Amino acid sequence: MNLDFNEQQKILSDSAQEFLSKECPKELMRQRRDSSTEFNRELWKKMADLGWMGVAIDEDYGGSGGNFSDLAVLLEAMGEACLPAPFFSTAVIAATALQFSNTESTKTDLLPKIADGSLIFSYALIEPGNSYSIDNIKALAKKEGQGFSVSGTKLFVEYAQAADYFLTTAKLENNELVVLVIKADSAGIKIDPFGTLDFAGQCEVRMQNIKVPESSVLAIGDEAVAMLQQIELVSAAGKCVEILGCIQAVLDMSVTYVAGREQFGQIIGSFQSVQHHCANMAVEVDSTRYITRQAVWRIAQGLPANKEVAMAKSYASSAAVRVGKLGHQTHGAISFCDELDMHLYLRRAHAASIAFGDTEYYLEKVAVEIGL
Amino acid sequence: MNLDFNEQQKILSDSAQEFLSKECPKELMRQRRDSSTEFNRELWKKMADLGWMGVAIDEDYGGSGGNFSDLAVLLEAMGEACLPAPFFSTAVIAATALQFSNTESTKTDLLPKIADGSLIFSYALIEPGNSYSIDNIKALAKKEGQGFSVSGTKLFVEYAQAADYFLTTAKLENNELVVLVIKADSAGIKIDPFGTLDFAGQCEVRMQNIKVPESSVLAIGDEAVAMLQQIELVSAAGKCVEILGCIQAVLDMSVTYVAGREQFGQIIGSFQSVQHHCANMAVEVDSTRYITRQAVWRIAQGLPANKEVAMAKSYASSAAVRVGKLGHQTHGAISFCDELDMHLYLRRAHAASIAFGDTEYYLEKVAVEIGL
Amino acid sequence: MDIKFSKEEQEFHDEIDEFLQRELPEGWADKPVTWPHDYASSGYQEQGDSDLAEAFLEKVIEKGWVKAFWDIGAERQAYSNMQQAIFDERMSYYRAPTMNSVTTGIVAPMLLRVGTKEQKEKWLPIIASGEATFWLGYSEPNAGSDLGSVRTSAVEDGDDYILNGQKCWSSGAHLTDYSWMIVRTDQEARKHQGLSFFIVDNKTPGIKMDPVINILGDHSFNNVFLDDVRISKDNLIGGKNRGFYNLMTALDYERICLVGIGGFKRMFEEIRDYVKATSHDGRPLSEKPSIRNKMARIATRIEVNYMLFWRTAEMLDRGEDPNVESSILKLTATELARDMAEIAMEILGPYGQITGNSERAPIRGLVSRGFLESISATIGAGTSEVMRNIIAQRGLGLPR
Amino acid sequence: MDIKFSKEEQEFHDEIDEFLQRELPEGWADKPVTWPHDYASSGYQEQGDSDLAEAFLEKVIEKGWVKAFWDIGAERQAYSNMQQAIFDERMSYYRAPTMNSVTTGIVAPMLLRVGTKEQKEKWLPIIASGEATFWLGYSEPNAGSDLGSVRTSAVEDGDDYILNGQKCWSSGAHLTDYSWMIVRTDQEARKHQGLSFFIVDNKTPGIKMDPVINILGDHSFNNVFLDDVRISKDNLIGGKNRGFYNLMTALDYERICLVGIGGFKRMFEEIRDYVKATSHDGRPLSEKPSIRNKMARIATRIEVNYMLFWRTAEMLDRGEDPNVESSILKLTATELARDMAEIAMEILGPYGQITGNSERAPIRGLVSRGFLESISATIGAGTSEVMRNIIAQRGLGLPR
After folding, report:
1. Homologous superfamily of domain range A224-369
2. What value of ipTM does the predicted structure carry?
């Protein structure tokens, strides 16, 4: 048994941290707050040059053929840096869906462009009134000639205004589920951004009779269900890693702050209540780290991982908010000011905690997995 | 608005505390542990002489005509003293049931004997496989001549081996509910004690064709349901008061201990973590006190009290265990020894926390009361 | 024991309630507002609201309620603390525009308690008329939880004092007229013994205010710099070098007057109505056992806080000093503010993250706002840790 | 990264598992046992059980597993720490009778680490054969969390030391043969610098043991009085006045070896099976959403603790010092022990209070027992507060 990064992952982790600490200042997050339509394309280009988008894409499709553990190394560093870019939707979700699909022409077309950074993907999976379940999908894909006509409304579509493609779901007229890719500039698409805590520029995307070719369909029926399950599994584990990066940063910031600040003639880090807050954060970080690594590793190995992911995501999701709030509490009033980065981590950690299923959603999955 | 005891209640409270601190040493609890069939009848006699059993019984029936607030003053002192005696089942539950009843002959017969301390009552309300709900009662009361023949099994019957009467429930053949009193020495009653955490000598009581006269029936049908609801209301509020007494004692013991004990060259009560444990206990005690007083006062005034009791009991029940455990934690290893009284309070507080409905049971009631 | 309003209290309650229902602008409580017991208030979002609020407050002042809280002639409170508590409860329940609560809840009672006759006659009427509003000049960069470390200095110069230094976290300083400021008048004395209170006009030469933007993106805090600010000795309140002693009382008032207990009930009712009216995945939220359980817990804790709130009012009316009790109230109410926001976020799932500038935002985005705002609750006006210290040391007598 | 057992580890795991399934007495795991990670163990309830346990342990010893953990000739461990962890996990999962874990988990590795060649040759074989079992002579009436304050004195006298003093909370002292005792060998040195370890035979003249009854009514603790107890210098282990330094290592071992991680899984499975098989008010407990949620939380925390457990084993195998990591493990596992008991009590409702001496007791009364036993978990071997101090000060570098 070996719970730690291997040599190659350590090198990747160090270089990713170094790169992002230089290239991804927190000002990028604040820029997103002030204008949520675009993101930093220069940084995106540099990341693509480093080969990050293709880390977990097969070499046949222009990637470097790494596994999910390698991708997770990057996601952790991105969480630590609060990277505001559509990496997750593109390199994790879209890449997973396409690699899972049998629609060879679309794979051959799109995967290399994901790998080289020339395509931005978003995902549009949740409909108004629904949460994480894939039941009750109301968007409709009607057979029309050689392709389909798609109509429906989706919420929580990150970076929608910057995306080239959406990955989305609909029902066929025979009630079968489909997963499809839709070009963002298709006629009939209306995008309305709404504000969210994490400045991710989440949008409402309304589709009215969007014409798509047959090759847009990545999966139908049971295969679509299986694909969505795989997306959920991978994304949930990926979000755990993002949370881990966030809360590690919160802990580090807090320890540095309390070790330097004086009140009552004492370093505040010498007060037992402050020490215990920090200790509790450290315990949460370590716990999140290892329960997450197990889930990630199992996915990377292609082993069954439903239970491990459900445990990791339920744990990490609640740790995210607990640690975020403790970080604020240990900092006191300064943490309530925009100038401190603490709230950026809370925003990110919270968004990750609800993405692809929150604590309660995964606890119910755990309950099923343990035989209840 | 006035949240505090009135003058008369203050006097009663002081005298009850003084009496019990002298007459009710914790050794009585330990005696119950070692032999659960009997309790200290001498102490019972003295309490009766003080008029405690009749505090909330009408003067017409030999009591002193006080209200539930007065009775609650005693229950708080009893909680603080960990009194091991069937006071609750006799002076709270049986007295409430009898006063609620219209069966005049039985009231005239039994209430004065409760008031003068000559009768011990227990209650037998829960059946195997059931919890607090009064649905699903399986005990049967068959009409037989002028009376009934009662059969069934009841659990959690406190002080059953010392009781003269049981207050119990059964279904008639037409499925109507009845509440009745049954003499403990009736032929066909079998009593098996089982160990419980609180040393209350709780028993399983099996009744096989017990013959009871018609006058044993205190209420039938809707009236029986109403009576049981009133019993639950009064008992739940009474248990909150008992918990309040218990956790106040736990807080007092803890503060005294940590103010005296030294470790690392310091009074341990000067460590911030210990101080915060104590502060958290104090907050719980105060919170329990006032939410409970409101419930008690409304019952005493005959005002609707379902919401207030549900809130009080859900709060107090969870505070009971939280404070009990904090008391142990602040004491450290000594609290794990029988010689310290701390565990007696935890036992009592836990028993009170589940009696007549636990936290979750009352939270659901709160949910209904707030319109959900 | 009598756990309901007296006849007089009930009439007072009903009078306020009727007034508020009658006089508040249509749909006022549905305008975007702040989370209960936060310290992030930053004025009104729209100019129209601000005008409506002022018009409403005129009526409150006309009613005499602000003025009536103290009887200047008799130098005492005209209404009981319980009545003031009832007033606060109703006002906060309706989210009514209030007189600046620092002014009416802290400065006015402090003047009444430690001001001279002349000071009372000068300040109380213009407080009652709404002409004088105050901010709290307490915190400094190196004096946050530890207010004994205040360094801003006041040096005597003839009939004046010259003030130099910096105040920070000055909530609403830019929206008010005066500061209720604690400064060091004796540089030699031991840390807690050389402090005094002054009333400082914001317009005095030498005062500079820099805005500080909070995590909601709002300007609520300020950094206030004092550079040779000349203040008349008449503005020294409560005795020279008695500042720390007076501060203890002022902090008690603060912990009580900032609770806004009615706001908890109102916010809760909005969440309750939302979960009844909303379905996720085809099922009403109000039917989910976990949501029923969470809502019931919150409702119960609000009720507990109501009881603790009435208790402090009762104590004040009995002439007792609710030092520990106000700390318990502050602790429980602010922890509740945080927990209520977190639990509401849990209930709303992905919808909770939508902020108020979107039509899709549940309850006008109040919950996502509260998730951030409530962070200030357990920090401002004394952290939860400081509250627990007070309860343990002053309440339970444990050693410092 | 490779988060599964290696082939060798898996084979070792399976070998133990098969052995346990084959050799444990029928229904052994269903006998009343103690709650995971408690400090209240007090031997077997029935003589028959005790005999069965001894017979079983003979087989473990025969198997060579106890002895095999150290290679005496090479003065090193024969099995990896990961293998020992696997052994502990399986043994605790099956609730198998174990060699006294203080002996095999603390004293033996400490001897291996700081003992002389002679001491190893003398003690390790009789530990391996089960002839020598130990209790921890650490706590004293005024040295609980603060072990630097140990006062029991050892004064040199020729080839011997003369010991005087008192030890308390001495778990299982009456059931074992020797003490692994820390005493003061230098009265003049600063508090932490004058301590040393001794092995003390319980039968040495001058030793008196008084039983202390715990809150379960069991005799698990003892007060041990030492009155001019004469001990050979050969029994001083790890260097004179090096005791506090060695204690830090011994405490690391203690935090790891007492976890009994498999016991959590076993207990959880029993509760799970119970809620599946039991209905209250006509409805299976396992269908109640609140119960599903609580069980899932516990299962997840157990899994987290498994990961933290394997981590310490890994660190030891890498030659690293898991001082902070063992404190994290101890903290999380013991808090889990408490929470699991409290949550199980909540799940069982009124039935939870029934103790093991009744047929009506769910899961043989283990839950009500655990509710009390688990109190010892967050106190014994360093309170949760001390663990948090260690994590903050040694782990995060915050000032003492």
Report:
1. Butyryl-CoA Dehydrogenase, subunit A, domain 3 (1.20.140.10)
2. 0.96
